[in-house]
């Protein structure tokens, strides 16, 4: 059981790092209004304003993921320490508030993403051959 908890904490920590990296990319898109090149995007936002709205939705979504990972890891690490009833109630209240923040963040991201206009991704123009 201890090994399973350590593996779970490790996986969640790796997920948190990936979430922070994704948040960094989304903040870059929000700040500049230009897309970060992801090869797996089928549709891209149509205008720079749509790029910024989409980036804000991505930031909120990644923030919700990061907060959720943080809440679960802190709950798993609480079992290692001395359990005091006051500490237990404090952790429970913090987890409730954190889950409300996660839900609100993802709800707002969902509604922001609904306002974004998308267009099909343009394939790069083929380069003409050098043969004449």
What does this structure look like?
The chain is mainly alpha-helical. 70% of the residues lie in helices and 5% in strands. It is built from three helices and two strands; from the N terminus they run H-E-H-H-E. The protein has helices at residues 2-32, 48-78, 85-114; strands spanning 43-45, 118-120. Helix 1 (2-32) packs antiparallel against helix 2 (48-78). The chain is elongated, with a radius of gyration of 20 Å. It starts with a helix and ends in a 12-residue tail after the last strand. The model has no long low-confidence stretch (mean pLDDT 85).
Which helices and strands appear, and what pairs or packs with what?
Blueprint: H1 2-32, E1 43-45, H2 48-78, H3 85-114, E2 118-120
Antiparallel strand pairs: 1-2
Distance between the ends: 69 Å
The strands making up the biggest β-sheet line up spatially as 1-2
Spell out the helices and strands N to C: HEHHE
Percent strand equals under 5%
> Quick check: average pLDDT?
85
Rounded Rg = 20 Å
Uncertain segments: none
Looking at the structure, what is the overall shape? Answer: elongated
* Main sheet characteristics: 2 strands, antiparallel
> How would you classify the helix and strand content by structural class?
mainly alpha
């Amino acid at each position: 059981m201890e090994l399973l908890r350590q593996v779970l904490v490790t996986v969640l920590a790796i997920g948190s790092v990936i979430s922070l990296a994704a948040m960094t990319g989304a903040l870059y898109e929000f700040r500049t209004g230009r897309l970060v090149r992801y090869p797996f995007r089928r549709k891209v936002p149509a205008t720079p304003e749509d790029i910024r709205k989409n980036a804000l939705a991505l930031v909120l979504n990644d923030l919700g993921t990061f907060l959720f990972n943080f809440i679960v890891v802190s709950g798993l690490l609480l079992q290692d320490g001395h359990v005091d009833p006051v500490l237990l109630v404090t952790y429970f209240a913090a987890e409730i508030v954190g889950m409300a923040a996660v839900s609100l963040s993802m709800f707002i991201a969902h509604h922001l993403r609904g306002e974004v206009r998308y267009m099909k991704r343009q394939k790069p123009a083929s380069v003409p051959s050098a043969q004449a």
